[in-house]
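Worked example 2:
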Amino acid sequence: MNAPLAGRVVLVTRPAHQSAALAEGIRAAGGEALLFPALEIVPVEPQSLAPLLTRLSEFDMAIFISPNAARFGMAAIREVAALPEKIELFAVGPGTAKALDALGLAGVTMPPGQDSEALLALPQLEQVAGKRIAIFRGVGGRSLLADTLRARGATVDYVECYRRRCPDVDADPLLQRWTDVAAVTIASAETLRNLATMMGDRGVGLLRATPLFVPHAKIAEAARMSGMAEVIVTAGGDAGLLQGLINWFREHP
């Protein structure tokens, strides 16, 4: 069948600037992508990061933990400083590596997995005593990466170059179409929490009864704990979500 998602409406909740690839894939597979961003990403003022970014020449390594970290981190660097040629670059996951490549950065090291644990298993990050490492990320988030690198003897600084927030959007048009929605895609636990908040009490029951597709086991665990009835874990990135949707609907016509 050339259109495995024919007749299926799939809710895409990625931030507006990151939804195009998945939406195009869904349409190419015959489905309808219903866009409803449940996470908003806004940059931190680059000048507030300048005291650290102007000292990047003192660092040995830079780790970008997401495509947003790559996009907003490099934008901030290029506004106030320059990325030293000698610094080693690391990306958490293929999406982040792809974002860095699109920004013209070569020689980026990426682990086979798609999380901090996989990155920490790389040989280059096992012996880091005396190294200085910058971690580009959003405000807040997990501390595992920095805590582990510090325990291994590195000096670690965060470059928190963007903020996440819940969009202030009326969900009534979405709720009115919910009977058409066959699946929901979620790329983070925070996005799921935002979506539930935006849909309100009368919408949460509808959300929990709809198949949810997520690209990581940790997101799936959070989704199940929040009451989602059916959670499908896919491979990572937009390609993984799309293939997971196609596989599932082939088995559930």
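Strands lie at 9-12, 32-35, 40-43, 61-64, 88-91, 132-138, 155-165, 181-185, 212-214, 231-233. The CA atoms of residues 99 and 115 lie 16 Å apart.
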